[in-house]
Design a protein that fits this description.
Layout lengths: L13 E6 L1 E10 L13 E11 H11 L2 E8 L3 H12 L7 E3 L6 E8 L2 E8 L7 H15 L4 E5 L8 H13 L4 E4 L13 E2 L3 H8 L6 H14 L4 E5 L5 E5 L2 E5 L12 H14 L4 H16 L9 H13 L7 H11 L4 E6 L6 H11 L4 E7 L1 H8 L8 H9 L6 E5 L5 H7 L3 E5 L15 E5 L7 H20 L1
Helix pairs in contact: 1-7, 3-4, 7-8, 8-9
């Protein structure tokens, strides 16, 4: 299903990251009392740890995935600068693009942690714009590094590095070189990212930038269309926290749901997502595949504490565990990108009520699976079954029917639909082969004009749900008559 990611790339992609460099400092401790001076906890410090934040964290995550990284940014002339440069050297990231400005501090975010809970954050930073000379030096360095890069990431934390002029100059250069440009935006005015390939604001940031309240799919699409129309973003994307992410594919809304996982710390999750997107796009994967990979990367990171990194092996293990081996029952929005990512494997689709699963059903599904690589079963919802077969049906509710179908080895995915016909679900999933029962011989098959091939499979004689129900009813009547006698 996700074979594209099973083998790490033999030639690592080269990604250029330009943006705000931050040092994340964590002060770990315990607390069992409040201060007598103010209603705040007294924290007894046990240890301190440091990690890369901002553009540095994007670079760190790219290294963990196996990319080659060039980094451009600005630091101060202070103690955090020394730690940052040493850390970059340890990761084999060249520091040639990291310039020092003695008139500004190295951005330092200090977080006080009690157990796994953050109780306080202290920021030491400057948001002043760079001098014209320093900005030109950054542009010169980035322009040179961009020549050999496969993708450009602009990691904006609103600390003064990524001005409108620098962003637009880099975007222009990258577009001319036909390199994908990914922007992690900040602020209200997104014009600085105009003509980028991809932006990745979260829902809150997108609402602020568009002045639209995102409450449903319609408003979500409206916000994405705003970025496409006003900022000329080739593919606008909005991250939706526990709901995954959404983007526009030729003005069609595509939602990539995430997988529920215990969240310990969301710090740096956005950095991991944009790093994973850049990694995949630099390798030539399409956006559907890149989003699946990025969702998994973000899920790995939020399961850790601190601005963490997600390695290629961790992301692959997560994908295999949650997509390849499980999670068979999905809605159409979740299933569509998975099927897109599986191409060129052939997708077989069939549908039915599958009320009382019997030998005939299993034989039919096994034969259907032999026709391709992935078998998707569209399952009529309870309301859909009632409208087709009467108020006495279904015998089993849709959750039970889906669970039983998902237990069959030949079935890869189950998707429940409310409509009386599977037309809309076929349009959404775009299967290659449509399978129906042999009783459709000589009849028009709904959705048949949307697939490459329609295949009719004969039923096993003497096996039907109706016959089973009649048999059970007959046995019940006979038992009742014997009792009355």
């Amino acid at each position: 299903m996700l074979d594209a990611f099973l083998t790490p790339p033999t030639t690592p992609p080269h990604v250029l990251v330009v943006g705000d460099l931050i040092v994340d400092r964590y002060i770990w401790g315990t607390s069992d009392r409040l201060s007598p001076e103010a209603p705040v906890p007294v924290v007894k410090v046990q240890k301190e740890t440091y990690s890369l934040g901002g553009a540095g964290n994007v670079a760190d995550n790219l290294i963990a995935l196996g990319a080659r990284v060039s980094l451009c940014g600005v630091v101060g002339a202070d103690e955090p600068r020394g730690w940052l440069l040493n850390k970059l050297a340890q990761l084999n990231i060249s520091t040639a693009g990291v310039l020092s400005d003695p008139n500004r501090p190295t951005s330092l975010k200090s977080r006080v942690m009690v157990g796994k809970q953050q109780v306080l954050r202290i920021d030491c930073e400057s948001q002043d714009p760079l001098s014209l000379e320093l900005e030109q030096a950054i542009l010169n360095l980035a322009s040179s590094l961009l020549q050999t890069a496969d993708a450009l990431v602009l990691s904006d934390y609103n600390k003064g590095v990524l001005s409108v002029s620098l962003c637009q100059a880099l975007i222009t250069l990258a577009n001319k070189a036909k390199k994908p440009i990914l922007c992690d935006p900040k602020g209200v005015d997104y014009s600085k990212y105009s003509h980028a390939s991809l932006i990745t604001p979260n829902k809150k940031e997108a609402q602020v930038a568009t002045r639209l309240e995102i409450t449903d799919d319609a408003s979500l699409q409206q916000a994405l269309e705003h970025f496409k129309t006003h900022q000329h973003i080739a593919t606008p994307l909005i991250t939706l926290s526990e709901q995954g992410m959404a983007f526009l594919d030729h003005h069609q809304l595509v939602k990539i749901p995430t997988i529920a996982r215990e969240v310990y710390d969301v710090s740096g999750a956005g950095d991991s997502v944009i790093a994973a997107l850049a990694f995949c796009l630099a390798l030539g994967y399409d956006l559907h595949q890149a989003c699946l990979f990025a969702n998994a990367s973000g899920a790995v990171v939020v399961g850790k504490v601190g601005s963490a990194r997600a390695s290629y092996a961790e992301v692959l293990e997560f994908l295999q565990r949650h997509y390849h081996q499980g999670q068979k029952i999905l809605d159409r929005h979740a299933l569509r990108p998975l099927l897109q990512a599986s191409r060129p494997k052939r997708v077989v689709f069939t549908n039915g009520c599958f009320d009382l699963l019997h030998r005939g059903h299993v034989h039919y599904l096994q034969e259907a699976k032999k026709l391709g690589d992935i078998l998707v079963v569209g399952l009529n919802s309870d309301s859909s079954v009632r409208s087709l077969k009467g108020t006495s049906r279904p015998i089993h509710d849709q959750a039970s029917r889906a669970f039983i179908l998902a237990g069959l080895e030949c079935v890869d995915f189950v998707v429940i639909f409310e409509e009386q016909t599977p037309l809309e679900i076929i349009k959404a999933l775009e299967p290659d082969i449509l399978v129906k029962g042999g009783d459709y011989q000589g009849q028009e098959v709904v959705g048949g004009d949307l697939v490459e091939q329609v295949v009719l499979i004969d039923f096993v004689k003497g096996n039907s749900t109706t016959d089973i129900i009649h048999k059970i009813q007959g046995m019940a009547c006979k038992t009742s008559s014997n009792k009355n006698f």
